[in-house]
Amino acid sequence: MQMPDPNPAILSRKAAVVRRLAEALPEGAVIHAPEEVRAYECDALTAYACPPLAVVLASSTEEVSACLAVCHEEGVPVVPRGAGTSLAGGSLPTADAVVLGVARLNEVLEVSYPDRMIRVQTGITNLAVTGAVEEDGFFYAPDPSSQLACAIAGNIAMNSGGAHCLKYGVTTNNLLGVTVVLMDGTVVEIGGGHMDAPGLDLLGVICGSEGQLGVVTEATLRILPKPEGARPVLIGFDESEIAGQCVSDILKAGILPVAIEFMDHPAIIACEAFAGAGYPDCAALLIVEVEGSDAEIDAQLDRIEEIARRLDPVELRASTSAEESAAIWLGRKSAFGAMGQMGDYICLDGTIPVGELPRVLNGITELTESYGLRVANVFHAGDGNMHPLIIFDANTEGDLEKAEALGADILRLCVEVGGCLTGEHGVGVEKRDLMEVQFDPADLEAQMRVKDVFDPKWLLNPAKVFPLSVSAGRRAA
Amino acid sequence: MQMPDPNPAILSRKAAVVRRLAEALPEGAVIHAPEEVRAYECDALTAYACPPLAVVLASSTEEVSACLAVCHEEGVPVVPRGAGTSLAGGSLPTADAVVLGVARLNEVLEVSYPDRMIRVQTGITNLAVTGAVEEDGFFYAPDPSSQLACAIAGNIAMNSGGAHCLKYGVTTNNLLGVTVVLMDGTVVEIGGGHMDAPGLDLLGVICGSEGQLGVVTEATLRILPKPEGARPVLIGFDESEIAGQCVSDILKAGILPVAIEFMDHPAIIACEAFAGAGYPDCAALLIVEVEGSDAEIDAQLDRIEEIARRLDPVELRASTSAEESAAIWLGRKSAFGAMGQMGDYICLDGTIPVGELPRVLNGITELTESYGLRVANVFHAGDGNMHPLIIFDANTEGDLEKAEALGADILRLCVEVGGCLTGEHGVGVEKRDLMEVQFDPADLEAQMRVKDVFDPKWLLNPAKVFPLSVSAGRRAA
To answer: How far apart are CA A237 and CA B191, in angstroms?
Structure first.
């Protein structure tokens, strides 16, 4: 069905912009029929949606540059998009914006094992990067849950993490260089395959800038040798605080597992009902995975078991085979599916100092009870990256708003204990109003001034990250 | 002896600035007697020296802020200084500048093992950071050769590395947060002990900015569990190209040693004459060190030996004890002392893709012969960080200039093969004129615009990093 655009000013504006884009780009690159642009009206934060003015699907850095140059001249905002898997609304369009997708830019350009690097176009999926090198014994470390679908472009925009980031760091720790197109169409190279570089390091500021400074079309990524093997141990406690203590004790002892995952009682019950993984009915479960050679794995698991035993666990089961490992991970890996069966949910993403886990878990319980809602906690405990899942009913009026208010209170608590608003999902539209909880006006002003330098007209993803009231003077009307 | 200042305008200016600084700071913090400021006239690039207007030795973030606020109002340039060990002239003063030293800021503020972090004041030495945590089994990874003396402030300014950075990365990969004082005296917190943070990541742009954006007074650093042990293998080849091939083959096989050091024939001969470490007389030596448990070390050394044997080494000696390890490292660790006995030298610092090692080594030999000079190569081969040492005679007129010209040609070659001007020493004054080899005018303009945002008057370390002709319009006369 043809969807009529309600606003005549936007309609005539649209015709002019689409004409210029079509002149500058090859056939098939510009999408503007209302029923077709609908496919781009939201990302994985599906509570919000808005069809854009038009969509450009670029196939090269030159096409990205051509699109941006036109939009720059016309003063049209641009919303960059990777695979559209953002949980924070990072690629949510506005009605006056062109969505610029990079999914067609999906080639591997170069692999060098001696330099432990791979150069790719950024539309490639996260998992395809590892796919390109795993036969030769290498892998790309950051592993968001959405890695089968999400694009490296989005990983760079949001500085994505994953279960492995306790040991290997997040995207910024694995990114060596980028080709980035600025809003006026200029193509800039930053960093590269070599170690370090002279002059200012603009790579860090690009990574995690949520598409507000430029559109990254190529990236040089660090690849690492695959460890020989990995095995988990499952540890259950009858108090959350003690599980939190166990996480601290393991890290304090100088053991660096590849992942420490935490599930609280509601999450255990839901996962067990869904997947039947044989989890015990207890207050908190840890899955601690270590990697290396068999001997090395055994030695690390022995030390972890010794630490856990001192805390009187109700369950302690180290894997001795691939089958046992799969059984231990089964419940955890079905967590999001299991939660989906409990109702609608919002997945938060705050980080806290690891030592604050017990206090924050208690605080979340208290807050949740005061709202009369339910919450389940499944998260990367090793680096304090919490993902409280707030369960609500989308069909009950006011329930979404209540869940969002609870989410905001939980994130305020994370900031209060010395943590921050986001670990790996980014700010997007979801958390833009909470930025004032984390930063004072001088901090936000300093950050906006950096955007001023890269994008003086504030056309790139302008309505994201900063509270709208704070960025109002800079954005076009 | 009282040194008369030759310039009366600077002299009266000096009196005014010193008076205001003395009012703003406690007794003993402001040094202005000509014979006392002499101690700050140069850093470890001793070929250049210039006594500053005055020196401020701050003991707190507040004092740094007070000093900067006065200089900002008076329009006086400020040259920040850590321990003064820069090989690139990063803290070389100018006659009109105040040197702002942070060496008195040397406290450990906080240690958290569960969060694997330490917070320090930045005047602390690199080695003292590890010293604060090693009894508990942790260490701070970046390890510049000057680590006994150099300050964390300088490590952050130059994004310093060291022999361990093949495995653990350079300073930027181990820095979690900073307290930085801007030129107008504003104190800003960036990053912190928690994983990631929302908003723009300004930490990367601060690290390696060579004191041009702000003065970093506190830093949160990543600490890591100490490996159980480490052992090297010494591998000798009768051709440099084959040694380069061996480095590539080890990394390609997915082995990640903690260090791969390379010495060419002139370096071997000099070190052997100096230290008598029992090195063979061959074209190139590799020292490859691996770490972990004993079993893990044995397994890695076996694989490395297997790779090396295929390339027909003239020497292959794996350490089996602490004594043997010390013997293997003895020559390498005396390299700089040994070179000092051969004559005066300049130590370069370029990085290249590891695969280009043979080509660049050949190129260095050809260039050196064409200048009629001698060069020795001792460097971190694993991450392509080369340190050619150019030997010259400071007492022969024109020899320093010839050595500098050769150095510039060698760094041009590094850029030509896809590498860069500096790995861990920074640009400083030493390489500022070579920045145009690496970057085109648009790149340099973009970098200078970032400095504009942090330091609009260009008062912080203004005569560094950028070619003077390029930054002329921005710097005060």
So the answer is: 33
Lowest model confidence (mean pLDDT) among A375-389, B45-59, B194-208, B397-411: B194-208
Instruction: Report yes or no: A304 and A319 within 8 Å, Cβ to Cβ.
Output: no
- The whole-angstrom separation of Cα A129 and Cα A143 is 11
- Name the CA radius of gyration of chain B, rounded: 23
Q: Do A427 and B198 touch (CB under 8 A)?
A: yes
Beta pairing partners, A236:
A285, A315
With H, G, I as helix, E, B as strand and everything else as coil, classify residue B312: coil
Tell me the three state secondary structure of residue B375. Answer: strand
ipTM of predicted complex: 0.71
- Among partner residues B169, B226, B354, which is closest to A114 by beta-carbon distance? B354
Give the distance from residue B295's alpha carbon to the nearest chain A alpha carbon, in angstroms.
8
- Placement of tokens 């900067």 in the chain: B68
Phi-psi group of A217: left, alpha or beta (phi > 0 → left; psi -120 to 50 → alpha; rest → beta)? alpha
Q: Contact at 8 Å (CB) between B348 and B387? A: yes
Alpha carbons B377 and B267: distance in angstroms, whole number: 6
Residue type, position A300, single letter: Q
Q: Nearest-5° angle of CA B314, CA B287, CA B390?
A: 95
List all residues 6 or more positions away from A80 whose beta carbon is below 8 Å from its beta carbon: A91, A99, A100, A101, A102, A153, A157, A211, A215, A460, A461
Under 8 Å CB pairs connecting chains A and B tally to 242
Nearest to B234 by CA among B191, B276, B284: B284
Q: How far is B432 from chain A (nearest CA, A)?
A: 9
The C-alpha atoms of residue B15 and residue A473 are separated, in whole angstroms, by 44
- In chain B, residues with a C-beta closer than 8 Å to the C-beta of A296 are 292-293, 295-296
Question: Which residues of chain B lie closer than 8 angstroms to A116, CB-CB?
Answer: 251, 256
* Strands A259-264 and A374-380, sheet pairing: antiparallel
With beta carbons under 8 A apart, name residues in chain A contacting B420: 192, 194, 196-198
Whether pLDDT at A151 is above 90: yes
Bridge partners for A318 per DSSP: A233
Instruction: Write the pLDDT tens digit of every residue in B140-186.
Output: 999 988 888 999 999 999 999 888 888 998 999 999 999 999 999 99
Query: Which alpha helices (H) appear in B225-321, and where do they start and end?
Result: 240-252, 265-275, 294-309
Q: Which contiguous run of DSSP H or E holds residue B296?
A: helix B294-309
The helix/strand/coil state of B160 is: coil
How far apart CA A395 and CA A407 sit, in angstroms, is: 19
Element (H or E) spanning A215, and its range?
strand A215-222
User: Do the Cβ atoms of A431 and B253 come within 8 Å?
Assistant: no
What pLDDT is stored for residue A409 in this prediction? 95
Contacts of A333 (CB under 8 A, 6+ apart): none
Q: Is A461 left (phi over 0), alpha (psi -120 to 50) or beta?
A: left
Rounded-to-5 percentages of helix, strand, coil across chain B = 40, 20, 40
| Band of residue B6 on the pLDDT scale cut at 50, 70, 90 | low
Q: Which residue has the tokens 């400021």?
A: B37
Query: Which structure tokens are listed for B117?
Result: 């972090």
Contact between B81 and B148 under an 8 Å Cβ cutoff? The reply is no
pLDDT-derived band at A195 (thresholds 50, 70, 90) equals low
- CB-CB neighbors (< 8 A) of B384 in chain A: 115, 194-195
d(CA B217, CA B101): 10
Nearest CA among B151, B164, B184 for reference residue B81: B151
User: Collapsing DSSP states into helix, strand and coil, what is residue A408?
Assistant: helix
* Whole-angstrom distance, CA of residue B197 vs CA of residue B350: 32
Chain B residue numbers with beta carbons less than 8 Å from the beta carbon of A262 are none
Q: Where are the alpha helices (DSSP H) in A191-264?
A: 203-206, 240-252
Give CA separation, B429 vs A201, A389, B157, B200, B456, in Å.
Answer: 18, 53, 14, 30, 21
